[in-house]
Amino acid sequence: MKIYFLSLFLFVTLGASAQQTLNLRLKYELDSLYHVDQLYREAMLVPEKHYLVDSLAAVHHFPAGQEQAQLIGLMLRTDSADIKRVGAIIQRHGYPGKALVGTPTNEAAFYVIQHSNRISQYLPLIKQAADRGELPFRLYAMMLDRELLQHNQAQVYGTQGFNFGGTNSKTGTPEQHNIIWPIQDPAHVNERRKQAGFSQTVEQNAQRMGIPYQVLTMEQVKAMSGYHAF
Questions:
Q1: Selection from 127, 35, 137 nearest residue 82 by Cα
Q2: Closest to 184 (Cα-Cα) out of 218, 146, 220
Q3: What's the predicted TM-score (pTM) here?
Q4: Can you list the alpha helix ranges (DSSP code H) found in the chain?
């Protein structure tokens, strides 16, 4: 019994010591950045949280009938401010990963970067953090896929959907395309997804996003009405 309590005491002591090494001030700041980053997106995109639109409209005094446009503008301004702050944090600390701010706060800077126009700048840093275990590797996979999409290249892990519209050249009728962006070696994508830490197959992920999954090539997408390169 004495040995048991001694072991328990050592465990609690070591755990408390490990937590004390975290930069708690930075952790709280990143938690706040992440909360706001997600708040506006959830208000617009998550049906169960559409009630947030009314709350935000009241707080920010949005003109009646302009709630969606005002919310998008607020989100973009916040994104711009957040990426500047995350850039300053990275310049001082490197990527704020698990050892510095714990989990899940180690994901906060990732999402700010993912929603910015600086993915190309930070992608190598995200890869290093993922390789060191400071960040889940699946998040690096998501950012890599987005980077490839933004450069009109096929993605690797099948994480990115894409929506665009145009006019059918033969019928003259409007067409809307909601697709999973083309994937490199699609026959083995689920193997890569599993290795990267995803719990869903590419088919399940497409269903989650409300997109009928079909295998497409870049040539097929480029031939669709309304497609234009980034």
A1: 35
A2: 218
A3: 0.84
A4: 2-20, 24-45, 51-60, 67-93, 98-101, 108-114, 119-131, 137-150, 189-196, 202-208, 218-222
